[in-house]
Amino acid sequence: MAPEARGIAGATRYVASNGLVALIQRNPSAPTVSVRGEVRVGAVHETAAQNGLAVFTGAALIRGAGERTFQQIVAETEERGCSVNAAGGLHTSGFAGKALVEDLPLILAVLADMLARPAFPPHEVEKLRGQFLTSLRESEQETGTQAWRAARALLYPPEHPYSRLTSGAIETVQALTREDLVRFHQRYHPAATTVAIVGDVEPEAVIALLESSLGAWPPAGAPPTLDLPPAPPLEAILRRDVPMSGKIQSDIVWAVHGLRRTDPDYYPAMMANMILGRLGIGGRLGENVREEQGMAYYCYSNLDADVGAGPWSAVAGVNPANVERAIEALVHEVANFVEQGPLPQEVADARDYLTGSLVLSLETNDGIAAALLAIERFGLGIDFIERYPVIIGAITADQIVDVARRYLSTERYVLAVAGPPAG
Q: pTM for the full model?
């Protein structure tokens, strides 16, 4: 495939001969450059028995790559005031770097080695495993983490990757071998990779650097595919209590199935979520459940919409003595929102917040890079940034009510509570 270059909303989109996509934006406001990228490989590609493999593999990329050891990577980048990192996630494995413009060649060379030639030294793998296990043991004592672990297990069938946390579990991470990391890394592919480079750079010069670094990553086999199994619809209220002795707080997760980022309902749902549980101190949930009724230390909602339909949830941290009353208040507030819909001022406030936050996010190199990655990942179009205020401004109260009534059921949902045993 011949390299291709064309404009995307002021940026240059370049497709290297190995299939890697680069998005390059010149931003002369600072003498620095940010690199952010993702490979479309993540926990959705691992089995339940190897839960945590994607995150473990992503974290291990920096532990030695090409001819450099972990210590050499750290020393060489820190000496010049640069940084590089990588991490596995649910749908993608990310990588990033920051540097002065003159050090961009070093950053791209190191990242290319990390993605194409990780060494996975056995002693570094074991060090990393120890850190992961320590973190997992700590998370076992976190009521919020355990409530979410239970909620996902209720919301999705066991074979669905959304049914578990990407961090894995103690038993699965203990069982992972270096060979498992090597095999999982073989899914990494340049044609499944996007990198955004933003800073005081000239696109033509960056393209030349890319061709000798990430563009030289040889493709092996076909790029990975993603085939998420369907999640059966909920037919009733499902509840799971996770008793955790010695805790002074209980965490509550209420959740239903949400929607994909590319779903036509996404923008009305995003507005609904902002009004229900994000604006100000937590939208209606924060105002009524936390502030007016004093039922929660925190209370807010979250819409997890990506390439798959994640949970649409409301969460709260409460005094264990108030668990049942807080659940009643939370569900009551969701039901009120579904029945009554938003007030005109709430719609206006949500519009202002969403359009204003986009403007703020584009004030940094990192923010611009993140926006470019999202545009590419979801096929949002070359003029998305310009169209966004129009999209948000066109959402009506009726659309918000309609999407809330179709998704936010108060008769079919999951409920997970983690905290001190009742009584």
A: 0.94
| Sequence ranges of the domains in the chain | 4-216, 238-419
- pLDDT bracket for residue 2 (50, 70, 90): very low
pLDDT tens digits along 327-336: 999 999 999 9
Other Cβ atoms within 10 Å of 6 Cβ, number: 10
Strand 193-199: give its sheet, edge to edge.
4-8, 11-15, 21-26, 193-199, 32-39, 93-100, 83-88
Q: Are 352 and 342 within 8 A, CB to CB? A: no
State the Rg of the chain over Cα: 23
DSSP for 347-401, please give it: HHHHHHHHHHHHHHHTTSHHHHHHHHHHHHHHT--TTHHHHHHHHHHT--HHHHH
* Distance separating alpha carbons of residues 395 and 265, to the nearest angstrom: 10
Each residue of 378-401: pLDDT tens digit?
A: 999 888 999 999 999 999 999 999
- List, in sequence order, every residue forming a beta bridge with 251; answer none if it has no partner: 317, 418
CATH fold group of domain 238-419: Cytochrome Bc1 Complex; Chain A, domain 1 (3.30.830)
Handedness of CA 128, 130, 133, 134 (dihedral sign): negative
> How far is the C-alpha of 332 from the C-alpha of 329, rounded, in Å?
5
Structure tokens at 190: 């340049």
Tokens of 237: 């209220």
Strands (E), 173-283: 193-199, 238-243, 250-257
Whole-number pLDDT of residue 10: 84
| CATH code 3.30.830.10 for 4-216 | yes
Are 77 and 83 contacting, i.e. CB atoms less than 8 angstroms apart?
Answer: yes
Backbone angles phi, psi at 404, to 5 degrees: -65, -40
3: alpha, beta or left? (left if phi > 0; alpha if psi -120 to 50): beta
